[in-house]
Specification:
By secondary structure, this protein is an alpha/beta fold. The protein contains 11 helices and 17 strands. The strands form 4 sheets. The protein has a 6-stranded mixed β-sheet with strand order 13-12-14-17-15-16, with helices on both faces. It has a 5-stranded mixed β-sheet with strand order 6-2-3-10-9, with no helix packed on it. A hairpin with a 6-residue loop joins strand 9 and strand 10. Helix 1 packs antiparallel against helix 2, helix 5 crosses helix 11 and helix 9 crosses helix 11. The protein starts with 5 loop residues before the first strand and ends with a helix. The N terminus is likely disordered.
Length: 418
């Protein structure tokens, strides 16, 4: 079932800071507005201050920028959210300065891709922005974005959602730029998609001691694993994301499938309320969760798109035929085999939780034809696990053990004519 593959091409090298500044100056001098937006993407805005005031009837958010920001506003239902899209932006203010209050029960912000950033305001009910404007700072040192939110009824909010348009450049970039351009692999290469969980605006869990973000931990492990796998003859591994970029769950699956991956390994390092629980866990997909811990984790991971302010899109109806059903069952069997191989590698080498192979309805594992696992390397909510997750030597050890597991899995598949 494993096809000859193509792997993701390396991104083009970024321009140096000096070159960017020279180019910006030349473009400004020649007054080329079309190119100016491209320069702006390479020289991000700086959001250096923020504050939020108000109550559950009216709430104001003010964000200070080093220069005038372009922005657009959208509304999303189920749950109600307000999305503010920005050009590439570095958020330099403390998180506590924009902690949710008043009409907002959650506020997220961060990078979407190389050219855009996003603020997602999850509201406590139907809300609209009565005011959304940019004004110059009185000191002349920058601009501020002012957002005034007020309560509205459900009917008015539904009309806002219905009548808006999402056909702006920012949204188009998110849906088309994520798929890497494929690169031909050698005949017979076994291709593996290594998925660093979370990214961009979706930071994931936060370390209990160091406050390290999960998206940083998963990317470091994904790069280490990819490098280690690519040292093995006949194996080609690629990253679904190579930097701090947001990818929707469906984009991650699509990247694996379009590059004809024979395996998909998604790496995570979550948090739990029970701080004493530590160790690795391997998850496979299932319609029914194996236990409450697995169900709760799947529910949190499946909220990734909502955190980033993605619209809920109904899954396309699939042809209900016996061949698709057989493919899914075969893929699930292969996924379970890979999970068992990983746990055999970890035995006496890496601590695991009790019943370390669990299953639930993870959307990121939903490809019907790509065997997939989600690996919780450890828990950032546990201080001892957090130390290991940030240790480079430990990272290398995990990468080696996972590579051994993949090699055993591949050998078994090939022995059975796969």
């Amino acid at each position: 079932m494993f096809k000859r593959a193509r792997i993701a091409a390396k991104s083009a090298a970024r321009r140096s800071t000096f070159a960017r500044r020279v180019l910006a100056a030349l473009l400004a001098a020649s007054l080329l507005p079309a190119a100016a937006s491209s320069v702006e993407a390479r020289d991000p805005l700086l959001a250096y201050g923020a504050r939020i005031v108000g109550d559950d009837a009216r709430t104001r958010i003010v964000i200070d920028f080093d220069r005038e920001p372009r922005f657009s506003v959208h509304y999303i239902a189920n749950p109600e959210r307000i999305v503010v899209d920005l050009p590439a932006t570095a958020f330099g203010f403390p998180a506590k300065d924009l902690a949710a209050r008043g009409l907002f029960k959650d506020i997220c912000y961060g990078k979407m891709d190389e050219e855009s950033a996003r603020i997602v305001l999850t509201t406590a009910g139907p809300v609209k922005l009565a005011l959304a404007k940019v004004q110059a700072d009185e000191t002349g040192n920058g601009h501020r974005l002012v957002l005034d939110a007020e309560m509205i009824d459900k009917k008015a909010f539904a009309e806002l959602v219905k009548t808006q348009s999402w056909s702006d450049r920012t949204e188009a970039a998110q849906t088309t730029s994520a798929i890497p351009a494929p690169q031909k692999a050698a005949p017979g290469d076994f291709v593996i998609a290594v998925d660093a969980g979370h990214g961009g605006i979706d930071t994931g869990a936060i370390g209990v001691d160091t406050k390290t973000e999960e998206k940083q931990v998963t990317l470091a492990f994904a790069k280490a694993l990819t490098d280690r796998l690519n040292k093995e003859p006949g194996i080609k591994a690629f990253l679904t994301r190579e930097d701090d970029e947001f990818l929707s769950l469906s984009q991650r699956v699509l990247i694996a499938r379009q590059n004809h991956a024979g395996l998909f390994i998604s790496l995570h390092a979550d948090t739990l309320k029970q701080k004493d629980i530590r160790g690795a866990t391997v998850y496979t997909i299932s319609d029914k969760a194996s236990d409450k811990l697995a169900a709760d984790l799947a529910e949190r991971e499946n909220l990734s798109d909502q955190i980033a302010g993605k619209e809920t899109v109904a899954e396309p109806p699939e042809v209900a035929d016996i061949l698709l059903d057989l493919t899914r069952r075969e893929t699930q069997a292969f996924s379970i085999s890979l999970a068992e191989s990983v746990l055999n590698s970890f035995k006496d080498q890496v601590g695991t939780i009790n019943n370390p192979h669990r299953h639930a309805g993870f959307r990121v594992l939903q490809a019907p034809d790509v065997p997939s696992i989600l690996l919780e390397i450890g828990f950032l909510s546990n201080a001892e696990d957090e130390k290991l997750l940030l240790d480079e030597t430990w990272r290398g050890k995990i990468a080696g053990l996972l590579t051994d597991a993949v090699k055993r899995y591949r050998a078994a598949v090939m022995a059975n004519g796969g």
